[in-house]
Amino acid sequence: MRRAVDSPRSLATVAGRKWLGLLPVLPALALLAGCGSQPIGSSRMSPDDPIAGSVRPAGQAGRPTTKELDPLERVAAAERAAAEGAAAQRAAAEEAARQAAELAEAERARAAATTRSVPESATNGRADSNRRAPAAPSPLAIARPEAGRAAAPGVAPQRMPVTIRVGPAGQVRSIAEAARLAKDGDTVEVQAGEYRGDVAVWTQKKLTIKAVGGRAVLIADGRSAEGKGIWVVRGGQLIVEGFDFVGARVPDNNGAGIRLDRGSLEVRDSRFIENENGILTGNDKVSTLILDRCEFTRNGHPSGQSHGLYVGMIERLEIRGSYLSQARGGHLLKSRARINEIFYNRLTDEEGGQASYELEFPSGGEARVVGNLIEQAPTTQNSTIVSYGAEGYKWETNRLTLVHNTIINRRQEGGNFLRVFRAGAAVFSANNLFVGRGGIAILGDIREGGNAAPPIRDFMAPGSYDFRPRKDAAFIGGAVRTDVPEGWPPVKFDRMYRHPRESVAVPSSKVMTPGAFQP
């Protein structure tokens, strides 16, 4: 086993104490010893050297073949080794600094190149992923700033987020490749256009994915990620903005525009069209889903097991300023989440729609439904519009708040505007308008006030879904205060849905009117 080399200081101290009296006779001892000692730095080794056959580091002493070296020579050898080691360290540091400077310069050049505006393709901005395009830069060209940054010994370098551009003129040409390259904190920008069969799995802990220059249309074209959908999200906090997800289908009839296995997903200004499920989540009880200004149209499957928006046993669902319509089967919105906030949306099955329920909370939970326009089509598959607790209560708290909604039943045979299937839940219903034939069926406690059932002629243009009240409508000014029971989360009706896919502030007025729209 190789012995550690003593420091020059310690060797000098030993030599000073032990050998001081022998200095006058050292030359004679050297003559007696002859030249049997192996020179410092020699590569010749004794046959019994335990590291024979290996290469010694530069400046390390070879093993003596006869006698131990003179202690003073050992001191000198150690000093030479220390000097050589220091020189080697200085050279290594200079080389590392040179390489860091080169990498930093390369990163500055890349940043200057990638911040230029992306030119539109010859197809007026349509990015057809099947069309041959000029060779894109290698993915390795997406330099990361941490590569050129010197880090303290033992400390991992901190990376800076980068932007990955996708499209014919981008750094990569497929969304799938961007999903493989992106790191936590990055932004993926997808050039407007059509992307056929370009499915992807996202596993990053924090990521923003957005379309630039217009809408990016993702057409499944018979393909799916992991047999689940166009995109599979299995990560942390993701923001998605400006995409259309079209035509997701898989063998089990649960093909989704986006499949959220776990994580926190926020989707803005995106559309889900003709998928078996617009969005389908798993049952991860800490996951959250936020939808802002989104559209779900002609989703579902005739089997009735797929839905426009299907949310599993997750922590929270929020949907605001969005439009859900024309189900091909199943429900417009089905959620098993613990907390549901359904604020100022339009859920209308419309002509030819075949939705079962428009809005269902089969497992109970906390459901706050405020400021929505909800309509059941004549061709519905079910007589109930809003359903709560049909499959039993799976959460500790089960409360339904229904405030300032306009709910229309166009089914000729009538039906239930609201049905609470089981006792054990509490309902607060205030300032809603129930239009058409039907009633309310509730098992459980209910507190209500300010609700009305006006004729359809009391609205401006119901045929074109303008459900603002006419000036002579009898219910104008009939709203009551929406003071929820003690211990309930407060609700505030401060915005109204505006088609398509947005909301506006409720006009200031001393007198409020029931329903989702103020005069």
Automatic annotation (TrEMBL):
Residues covered by region (Disordered): 40-71, 98-136
Listed InterPro entries: Pectin_lyas_fold, Pectin_lyase_fold/virulence
Composition-biased stretches (Polar residues): 114-127
Name of this chain's protein: Right handed beta helix domain-containing protein
